[in-house]
Structures are given as C-alpha cells and as structure tokens.
Amino acid sequence: MGNTIRYGMIGCGMMGHEHLRNIALLDNARVTVIFEPDTQMAASALETAPGARPVNSLVELLAQDDVDCLVITSPNFCHMDQLCEIATIRALPILVEKPLFTDIAHLAALKEFERNYPAPVWVAMEYRFMPPIAAFARRVVQATGGIKMLTIREHRFPFLTKVGDWNRFNAKTGGTFVEKCCHFFDLMRLLIGAEPVRIMASAAQDVNHLDETYDGLHSDIIDNGFVIVDFENGARAMLDLCMFAEGAEFQEEISAVGPLGKLEAKVPGPGRFWPEHLGAPPTPLLIESPRDPRGPVTTPIPVDPALLDAGDHNGSTFYQHQLFLKLVRGELDAPGVSLDDGKKAVLMGFAAQQSAQTGKAVELADWFAK
C-alpha cells in the first residue's frame, strides 16, 4: 500500500468535516495539519481528526514538512486566491472543492495557475462518484442507444447555515447556479460526452431567506429555476432545481432517453434529514425502461452504511478520495475531474444566471473562450 499520505486541510467547515471523516476511512492516509480560522470549527475539526494539529495561516501550513497533499474546503470565494497563493510557495497535489471560482474576473488568474502549476489538481465534483449516478453513467449509452434528452432534477432542502453566513450572497458563492448547480452542469457534460453550445434559464428567489439580512444586506440567492442546455451533438439537457422541496422521497432524479429506451437514477438526500417516523431512508434506484420489450427493470443500488454516516453525499466523498489518493501516489495519470472540467461547469452556471436575469439565451462559445 505504500507509505502513509499526509493531508493538509485548508478550511474545515461543514464540508471540511465530511472530508475529514472520509479521509479517516482510507488506508494509509491521515490528516496532519489543519488551517481553519473559525475557532469553534477548528476545535471541532481537531476532535474529528485527533492526530492533526492547527496552524494559523496558509503560509504556516505550507511550511510544515509532514504534508504530502492539500484539500481546500474553504468558502467558495477563497478558492482561487488560495490556489494562487499555494502556487507561489509550494506545489503539492490539490483536491479543491467546487466551485473552482466565483467571479469571471478570476479567469485570468486561473489560466495562469493552470499553465504553470506543476502538481495535479482535482476539482471535487462529488456527484460523479455517487454509486447510483456512477452506475447510471456506466449503463446509460447501452440503455438509451445514445442520449437525446437528459433531465436532472434536484428537489431539496434550503441552503444550510454556514460560518459567517457566507452562503447567503451571490458575491461569495458565485450564485446558486454556480454554487449548487455546477455539479449538474458537470454531469451533463460527462454523461452526454459533448460540449454545450447554448443555455436558457428562468429562475427566482421565491421562498427561502426572503427576510434575512446580514450587516444590512439582504440575502440574494435564487432558490428555484429551470435551465435548458443545447449540446453540439444535438442532445438537450434540462435542470429542474427547487430548494424548498425537502419533503420529497428522492433528492436527485436523473433521466436519460434515447432511441432504445430510458434510464433513470433516483438518489435520496442525506439520511440525517430523513424523518424517523417514516422508517429507514429510501435506497437509491436505477430504473431501465427499454422500448422493446417494454417494462421497467428496477435495481436497488445500496450504499455502505459506514459511508452514509461519514457524509451527506451517498458515499461519493469516500470514493472520490480513494481515487485522489491514487493520484497522489502516482497510480493515476491525471485527475478524474480536471481544472477545465471545473472551469466549464462554473461558466455554465454564470451563463445560466445571465440568461435568467436577461430572459435571453446565452451562446457558450464566447464564454468558453474567455
């Protein structure tokens, strides 16, 4: 298995804690150093990773000898600045949470970073690695005969409370279509296997956070919307997002249809939010519905309970970390999710937000050329 790989954690809020719990499940891997400015979160992180020690800055973390790789789980608006700072000090393999950046103005810095950074960088797109979605991806071409229509629905709970309430503002998250939905735009590109050419969206803030103010500023994040995406190979995809629908049995529902049939994946939300009076949480499902012979075939895709306990993403954080660990060890040639993947998912989110604001479709060629 090789020597133990030692992790430096940059940011340990809610998602950072999920990463800590999943790294603890890996063989020959441990967190040695944590940089988390919030004292309460830092104390909690050290309880979750009792062998780690705290530092007071990113510079101090990078000066530690017992760090082989980095995991960035800081608030969205910190990611790009921290990547650039790391590049000037010490090049280590990085797993950086989505979204990769939160402002179009970051693109110049991202290009410079991508051109010059010598170590591998993996953008954390957990949804790719959820067992039901991974099973869907493996089966979708054969089941459909090639995707013509792809629909991704996420009906879920509102944004949770985070340190400093940073996730209540577009300026700090990038906006809901960036912060939350870059996952789904990434899945669209992955599953369809082609580049998007046009985006159209309608969205609003209708229910959540309407009366919330922070330092005199009103929360401005959208909580529902539709997005339609045209792809260069003629396929079309649609996103249906609602963040006041936590009463649903399944949180994500993905449907692909082609000339041979239809394939669906149904994914429940975090088990900790499932009402106890309803019994056990639902099991993820894969449903294949061929046109001939007609009749759906439903396959349960259970997830290891230990992995469900370690996070809110159906075990995907663990499977992503397994692969990232192989990358750090030199057992993989390239990251499973590249900087280019991360960039295009964010740009699709920005374009969708522009379309929703203007009521006009956005051509993506100019955006991808930025």
Characteristic terms for this protein:
13 helices, single chain, globular, nine-stranded mixed β-sheet, 370 residues, alpha/beta, six-stranded parallel β-sheet, 24% strand
Strand content: 15-25%
In N-to-C order, the SSE pattern is EHEHEHEHEHEHEHHHEEEEEEEEEHHHEH
Helix residue percentage: 25-40%
Structural class: alpha/beta
Average of the residue pLDDT scores: 95
Neighbour order of strands in the largest sheet: 16-15-14-13-7-12-11-8-17
3D structure, described in words:
The strands form 3 sheets. Strands 16-15-14-13-7-12-11-8-17 form a 9-stranded mixed β-sheet. Strands 3-2-1-4-5-6 form a 6-stranded parallel β-sheet. With 370 residues, it is α/β, with parallel strands linked by helices. Helix 1 packs parallel to helix 2, helix 4 runs parallel beside helix 5 and helix 9 crosses helix 12. 33% of the residues lie in helices and 24% in strands. The protein has 13 helices and 17 strands. The longest helix is centred in the last third of the chain and has 20 residues. It is globular. A hairpin with a 4-residue loop joins strand 11 and strand 12. The model has no long low-confidence stretch (mean pLDDT 95).
Topology overview:
Blueprint: E1 5-10, H1 14-23, E2 29-35, H2 39-48, E3 53-55, H3 58-62, E4 69-72, H4 79-89, E5 94-97, H5 107-116, E6 121-124, H6 131-144, E7 149-155, H7 170-173, H8 176-179, H9 182-192, E8 196-204, E9 213-214, E10 217-218, E11 224-231, E12 236-242, E13 252-258, E14 261-267, E15 285-290, E16 297-300, H10 305-309, H11 316-328, H12 339-358, E17 362-363, H13 364-368
